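Exercise: predict the fold of this chain.
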Amino acid sequence: MTKDDKRESVLRELNSDPFRQVPASTILGFFHPYCNAGGGGERVLWTAVRDVQKEFPHVISVIYTGDLDATKEQILYKVKVNFNIDLDPHKIIFVYLTTRYLVDDSRYPRFTLALQSLASLVLGFEAVNKVVPDIYFDTMGYAFTYPFISFIAQVKIFAYVHYPTISSDMLQRVYEQRQTQEVQVSNKGWLWSTGKLIYYHLFAKAYGFCGSYADVVMVNSTWTKGHIDQLWSTDAQIVYPPCDTDRLNELPLKNRLPMIVSVAQFRPEKDHSMQLKAVAQLLEKYPQWKTCEGFELVLIGSSRNQGDEDRIQRLRQEVVSLGIDDYVRFEINASYDVLVSSLGKAKVGLHTMWNEHFGIGVVEYMAAGLIPVAHNSAGPKLDIVTDYAGKQTGYLADSVDGFASSLHAALSLSLEEYEAMASNARASASDRFSEVAFSSKFLRSLRRYFT
């Protein structure tokens, strides 16, 4: 089947409803193999799709996904429940990819980055072999597909980068490990870390070459832009991820409980274990919180697969071993309404991921009127938990002791101090990270290609 034949097939599917004919002239292919995951990256995807539908009525959005167990109706329903985003189903086609399992990191215990990246070529080929778009828009960071797609499909390449696959921070960590092993005079360890450093440098070169094929590059934060500009030799546009600040701004600041909320997928890099240790230390150093009515840590996040389920079980066991089971509650795969309800009751929002590229959960805390206690690195440090109008918007920490102390400081604010800081944080979030702000910058990048 030729490219034109496949285009006609897509349009026939869209126009199967005789009462809803679609005069499409452009097919925009969103390459997002985990579109049903329900995380911050998916909020960006679906907000972008909604904006495209509103701004460019002649554009059809094709979603390349590996979520074989979910129908179109189920995916769009989850988008509505999780993100409160309404989409026109008549302008969306889902192209299901059967080879997504090849990019699962659990398949590659060694040389994970390189093997995953090579596997993504298979996934990319399957995508454009099924439907060749006019524009290929990667929203998950599969840069190794760009030269390949550009060559075989001869289409424009757009990219929204949440997180560089490799960064100078990763290289620095390996270098520091190598220096430590030199001091310890461990030949085997030194050789291993030297080989790893060479591998990472070569991978970074290849990653930069592939990324340079992108015609339009958007990134989600100052930290990500710094790395992508350096690696890809580009000048990426910062388009902060969208947050539903309007609804969260409506939550009252009165009658908040000494509740700590953590909103994050149950992935290893989110470091939920540090959160549990920080709360345990908080209760040990400041035992008054044990008898404070309403005090608890609520962990809200989605579970994507068995790996996440196993991780959650280990966290539950850690809660018991730390002796804080009376003060910790899990909300797995919670609906958007449950999330908003929890944010409306809590006083503090907790975030512990090192070098989080952006941190949309932290923005949600601020918009909802919580005091953020976030990791002192990357997005939270450079873009989010910064002074606004010359006033503090939250706390930053980078150790268990630091998080425990910051949690205590945030929870100990007087009502007047809390409301002043929460109001300032809310104003900062609404001004810089709203859906309106995202849409304005995102659409500005697309108009010259679609109008």
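Check your answer against the key: Residues 245-432 form a domain with the Rossmann fold fold (CATH 3.40.50.2000).
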